[in-house]
Design goal:
about 450 residues, mainly alpha, about 80% helix, about 0% strand
Length: about 450
């Protein structure tokens, strides 16, 4: 059987299993196991199943992932997401579409303490969407901004996807994390500009909130900063430590988790019960990610055995000889895969294919990492399998149709066209900060 049909049949099988509510990691792993069984024999399938979990989990650099997740869980359970939204609302709420802009900015701040797009979208959906709907905001705008801005957690450090990309592409994880800062800020800024322009042109999307007492408003603004300044110091300290070479990613995650717990206890927002809940949340999420990772690695091995690399090379053909055409071809592949596959699976499946091509043309692999994560972000919003959209749908329930959420994300996907054009045309947006590191 050709690599094309192996990839099509296995992909359809994975989607069917996911549709039947089989966990993503189990679905990918089962399809890969059966594929090895049919493609070779049962002994080969059992050997891959036995060896892959250990080989995948044995990497020391992966220890950064549970630390980042614990840091995000502690900050979320200590109510920092609520404080961030309250602060952003106080400072941006009076603008056209102010609550949507505030949600966007709060997501960017929470992303710097989270590392998981799904967690960021889920946390902000519970807080921001009811507030926007209460003030008469368009349902598509209210849900679309949460789903879209939640993806910033995949780009702004700490980022789990950058850790995984760095491990399997053999690229400096620290440089990848630092490289995500400016593209993340650029994304948040363009999102905010789009919201302001849309709401200025069509005020019915977001009725303007008027603050009658200006003195009371300024008191609320300064009080909100008092609530979030420890998190700001924490984020700047971790990013500064990574930039200055003081921390490794694992040490940064551990220090961040420890300081997040200390801040939560000192502010009396974190109890022993919520601390245990944070530990449990981070362990469950880590186990889930590792299950997906193991399944994705098995699936990658199956596709490699079937000759998927050669198939991609044949499809891309002469495009792989020209840097711009290679980037365009890579973009098309990621956009298609993002419609169907889990973000972690996309990264693990495509790295062995595209990294050698980019290295052969002497293109910067840190820059490629930023592009890959951005395309994975886009995949979190595109139908039919837009994970962040389904996360928001799970929060809002039946009150808002799924089509409305996807419609709300359309404008943010249009922004992504502008953002990706800038990142491809001007690689220094991603590479300038890493280039200044020692």
């Amino acid at each position: 059987m050709s690599a094309f049909w192996v990839s099509i049949i296995t992909l359809v099988s994975i989607l069917i299993l996911i549709g039947l509510r089989v966990p993503i990691g189990v679905a990918i792993g089962c399809v890969a196991f059966v594929g090895f069984w049919l493609y070779r024999n049962l002994d080969v399938a059992l050997s891959v199943l036995r060896d892959t979990p250990f080989v995948f989990a044995a990497s020391w650099d992966l220890t950064a992932i549970p630390m980042f997740l614990l840091m995000g869980s502690l900050t979320n359970n200590s109510g920092i997401s609520t404080s961030l939204f309250r602060a952003a609302r106080a400072w941006f709420g009076g603008w056209p579409g102010g609550l949507a802009v505030a949600t966007n900015m709060a997501c960017a701040g929470f992303a710097a303490a989270c590392g998981s797009s799904v967690a960021a979208a889920a946390a902000m959906a519970r807080i921001a969407i009811p507030e926007m709907l209460k003030h008469g905001y368009d349902k598509g705008l209210a849900t679309g901004v949460v789903a879209s801005a939640g993806t910033l957690a995949a780009l702004i450090p700490p980022s789990i996807l950058f850790v995984l990309y760095g491990i399997f592409a053999e690229v400096s994880i620290v440089k990848l994390l630092i490289a995500g800062i400016l593209p993340g800020l650029l994304t948040a800024a363009i999102y905010a500009i789009m919201i302001l322009v849309r709401c200025r042109l069509d005020p019915s999307l977001a009725p303007l909130i008027k603050f009658e007492n200006r003195e009371e408003l300024w008191r609320e603004r300064w009080a909100s900063l008092w609530e979030v300044w420890p998190l700001i110091v924490l984020i700047l300290g971790i990013i500064g430590g990574l930039y200055g070479g003081v921390f490794t990613p694992t040490e940064a995650g551990a220090a961040g988790a420890f300081l997040a717990a200390v801040i939560g206890f000192l502010q009396r927002r974190l109890t022993f019960r919520t601390f245990l809940d944070s530990l449990q949340d981070s362990m469950v999420t880590t186990a889930t990610l590792f299950f997906i990772g193991v399944g994705a690695v098995m699936y990658t091995k199956l596709l490699a055995l079937a000759g998927i690399s050669a198939m991609f090379t044949d499809i891309i053909g002469s495009w792989a000889l020209d840097p711009l055409l290679l980037v365009i071809a890579t973009s098309i592949v990621y956009l298609i895969l993002g419609m169907f596959l889990d973000p972690l699976g996309i990264v693990l499946i495509t790295i062995p294919i595209f990294v050698p091509m980019f290295a052969a043309l002497k293109l910067d692999l840190v820059w490629l990492g930023v592009l890959v994560v951005k395309y994975v972000e886009i995949g979190l919003l595109t139908p039919p399998v837009g994970f962040n959209v389904y996360v928001v749908k799970n929060v809002v329930g039946e009150s808002i149709p799924l089509e409305t959420i996807f419609r709300g994300c359309f404008w943010f996907l249009a922004c992504e066209v502008v953002i990706m054009t800038l990142l491809i045309a001007f690689p220094q947006i991603s590479l300038w900060l890493p280039s200044t590191m020692n």
